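A reminder from the course coordinator: this example appears on the midterm review sheet, so study it carefully.

Given structure:
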């Protein structure tokens, strides 16, 4: 494999030193600099969902139908899938930091282009590029976060950060209220301003993100151990000063055969041959949550407007979003305390059952009761969905981490995230004349079945990763038993 040339062998204690760090203000820098991007994603998705009615008029909007609103959601997701795969490979090859700066730049430019859309095709193209930037972020950010956060806190931090999507969702929903009020803002300008504000927030995040270091784990595997060592020493000094504690010494080391890059065939062999059970697990989790969220949330504003004549959907979506973030935040510590398998299976199955119940009583619900029902369902679903990203970022070897996140995000989202908005958009269009909301219950039942199935798969194939070093959960491809030993065989999940 020409692109996987070995450059040397080293024995390092960097992973153990990173995992034994106490929580400090420095870790909050990582959380803010990297995690806040999900706020942007939430802002984007919510603006589209809340402003679906504003995009429909020929004069002030873009003359789009409900089906085209669904198409726009699907195009955004398609861009995210392809962007994740493209940028995910580059993240493993060129490093976390270069890519999480590049992908945020792509997002920013594409969001500005969205604000200047002149017709549906322009809008679709801009949404595709915006999705590509966000998809690349998923790979670069989740891999960087897991490699910089100590093992003791990794579960709760990852789940809470992915759940911060809903802070952006709530902000976007509230933002649309004045922007959709013709007495406050011209309706031909309001929806454009909403997208422009997203770009301003992205620039602010970029300023903070510049101070987040490259992953030391990525550096030592790619022959740059001196840089990795310097970064870890700087982090240790900063954390020691911030906490006022002496850091305990470590004895655990790992021997690595360094490479400049890992070939795509070797990554594929790792995912499908060494870890087939984990592959099935991740696909199940991603398909379920992607269909549920993209189908329900991308078209929720359209549902409220079509069936309940709600003009200002922002208040409803803000309540829904607040419940989602509360679920991810309040339940996240349990993923470290009770364990991954119990929490992921529980949140998936419970939210799936509740969604099926909602589908059965859909005809008896109004705008408020449907929102309350959704808030309860997604309080649990949001924590589970966030844990899908945590799972994909934990259970595969270091060298493949970003691309594995991208792969499962792309495949799962392509199956569930593209089909969901298209199906719901079509169901809403077909039922709009009669205003019979029960016609969209089919989408609820499909989402419920996929979520319950994901929970069942977690019970049988889930990995007990809580509190463990990433290198113990999945042995690096380049690891050896000792400096002169043979390559380790990656363990199968229990």
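Designed residues:
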């Amino acid at each position: 494999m020409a692109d996987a040339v070995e450059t040397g062998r080293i024995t390092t204690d960097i992973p153990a030193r990173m995992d034994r760090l106490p929580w400090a203000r420095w870790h909050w820098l990582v959380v803010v600099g990297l995690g806040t991007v999900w706020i942007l994603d939430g802002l984007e998705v919510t603006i589209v969902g809340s402003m679906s009615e504003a995009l429909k008029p020929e004069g002030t909007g873009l003359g789009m139908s409900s089906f085209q609103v669904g198409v726009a959601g699907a195009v955004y997701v398609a861009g995210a899938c392809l962007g994740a795969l493209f940028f995910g490979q580059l993240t493993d090859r060129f490093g976390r930091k270069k890519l999480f700066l590049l992908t945020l730049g792509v997002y920013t430019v594409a969001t500005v282009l969205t604000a200047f859309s002149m017709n549906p095709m322009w809008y679709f193209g801009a949404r595709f590029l915006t999705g590509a930037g966000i998809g690349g972020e998923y790979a670069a950010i989740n891999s960087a976060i897991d490699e910089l956060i100590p093992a003791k806190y990794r579960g709760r931090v990852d789940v809470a950060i992915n759940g911060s999507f809903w802070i952006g969702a709530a902000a976007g929903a509230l933002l649309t209220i004045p922007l959709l009020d013709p007495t406050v803002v011209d309706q031909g300008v309001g929806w454009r301003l909403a997208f422009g504000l997203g770009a301003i927030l992205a620039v602010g995040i970029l300023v903070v993100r510049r101070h987040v270091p490259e992953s030391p784990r990525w550096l030592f595997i790619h022959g740059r151990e001196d840089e990795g060592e310097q970064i870890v020493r700087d982090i240790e000094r900063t954390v020691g000063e911030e906490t006022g504690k002496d850091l305990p010494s470590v004895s655990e080391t790992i021997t690595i055969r360094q490479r400049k890059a890992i070939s795509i065939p070797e990554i594929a062999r790792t995912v499908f041959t060494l870890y087939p059970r984990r592959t099935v697990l991740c696909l199940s989790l991603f398909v379920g949550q992607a269909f549920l969220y993209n189908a329900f949330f991308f078209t929720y504003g359209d549902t409220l407007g079509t069936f309940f004549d709600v003009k200002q959907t922002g208040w409803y979506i803000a309540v829904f979003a607040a419940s989602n973030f509360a679920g991810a935040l309040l339940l996240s510590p349990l993923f470290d305390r009770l364990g991954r398998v119990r929490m992921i299976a529980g949140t998936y199955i419970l939210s799936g059952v509740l969604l099926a119940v909602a589908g059965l009583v859909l005809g008896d619900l109004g705008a408020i009761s449907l929102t309350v029902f959704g808030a309860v369902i997604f309080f649990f679903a949001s924590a589970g969905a966030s844990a899908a990203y945590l799972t994909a970022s934990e259970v595969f070897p270091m060298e493949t981490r970003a691309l594995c996140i991208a792969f499962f995000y792309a495949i799962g989202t392509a199956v569930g995230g593209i089909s969901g908005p298209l199906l719901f958009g079509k169901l809403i269009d077909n039922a709009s004349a009669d205003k019979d909301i029960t016609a969209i219950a089919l989408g609820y039942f499909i989402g419920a079945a996929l979520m319950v199935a994901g929970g069942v798969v977690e019970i049988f194939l889930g990995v007990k990763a809580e509190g463990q070093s990433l290198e113990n959960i999945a042995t690096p491809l380049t690891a050896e038993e000792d400096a002169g030993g043979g390559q380790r065989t990656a363990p199968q999940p229990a």
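The longest strand covers residues 6-12. The radius of gyration is 22 Å.
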